[in-house]
Automatic annotation (TrEMBL):
Amino acid composition bias (Polar residues), ranges on this chain: 236-252
InterPro entries: DUF7729 (IPR056146)
UniProt domain DUF7729: residue ranges: 20-199
Protein name: DUF7729 domain-containing protein
Natural source organism: Modicella reniformis
């Protein structure tokens, strides 16, 4: 038997996308990733976007940041999941799905594993507040992107709160607006992800088709902020309390002494969701 999946934003908690492609998973792998999506699973609250109420929280052309702020306030008041819980899920995914980690299963399994890997950094990022304004950083950044008339990943189909929160967590391209890109909030959110990549390197590819590693994501993210903002990510230094972290005349933001192709990331975090397919697993 094979599993026909029109499937799986199990990892993302979203159902806005579908696929006509067939993805074949082993029975054991399918059973495990399906169990992760169940509301009765004690780990359900560990998925950031699911716990926030996506996809039901938003709709097309939704710019209601007050609604998002309320959801974030409620969510961030709950206890965070532990490192041990996240490590357990990733270990079980690799145990149950070892033979399934191939390019053909990127949309289903690859997305699931990547978003579980990113969850601890996502939790910290979406709960981060700007101490000066006492507002949530991702909401500040989303308001700025909306005010510029900019769609997440330049894709009008992502013009909703779900698209925006993924796009700014972290923001990975200045898009011609360096001042907005280099805000303290964006720098701090990016630093959260950079530290996660450094301290918790992924033991599996974050994109099966591209064999993308967490170290590559960190390299590209660091390049963007060093070249545009003259700051070094991956440190314990807070962007809200800068201490001259980088010499503005330092040219080390260029790789090999020249501009890097990293200026246009092949893989973005909002793109993880955009590339995924929506959940519904059927046995035939």
């Amino acid at each position: 038997m094979k599993l026909l999946s029109t499937v799986a934003l199990i990892a993302l908690g979203a159902g806005a996308f579908s696929s006509t492609a067939e993805a074949v998973l082993s029975a054991g792998c399918n059973t495990y990733i399906t169990s992760l999506s169940q509301a009765t699973n004690s780990l359900a609250k560990c998925r950031v976007y699911t716990a926030l109420g996506f996809p039901g929280l938003t709709h097309t052309n939704d710019h209601d940041t007050d609604k998002l702020q309320k959801a974030l306030t409620d969510y961030c008041a709950t206890p965070a999941c532990t490192k041990e819980q996240y490590a357990g899920v990733l270990k079980d995914l690799q145990t149950n799905c070892a033979a399934d980690m191939v390019a053909e299963n990127q949309d289903i399994l690859g997305t699931t594993m990547t978003m579980w890997y990113l969850s601890p950094a996502q939790r910290e990022a979406v709960c981060l507040k700007n101490p000066t304004t006492n507002t949530t950083c991702v909401v500040e950044s989303i308001k700025d992107v909306i005010a510029r008339g900019q769609f997440p990943n330049d894709n009008k189909n992502e013009d909703d709160l779900y698209g925006y929160i993924q796009y700014v967590s972290p923001l990975v391209s200045a898009k011609g607006n360096t001042t907005a890109f280099c805000s303290q909030c964006n720098q701090e959110v990016a630093n959260i992800f950079s530290n996660h990549y450094i301290k918790n390197p992924s033991s599996f590819p974050l994109n099966f088709a591209q064999q993308l590693s967490s170290s590559k994501l960190n390299e590209d993210l660091q390049y963007q902020y060093k070249s545009a903002c003259k700051v070094t990510l991956g440190t314990d230094q807070s962007a809200f309390k800068p201490t001259n972290p980088t010499n503005p005349n330092d040219n080390s933001g260029s790789k090999d002494g020249k501009n890097s192709g990293a200026q246009s990331l092949a893989f973005s975090f909002g793109g993880v969701a955009a590339a995924a397919v929506a959940v519904a697993v059927a046995m035939i």
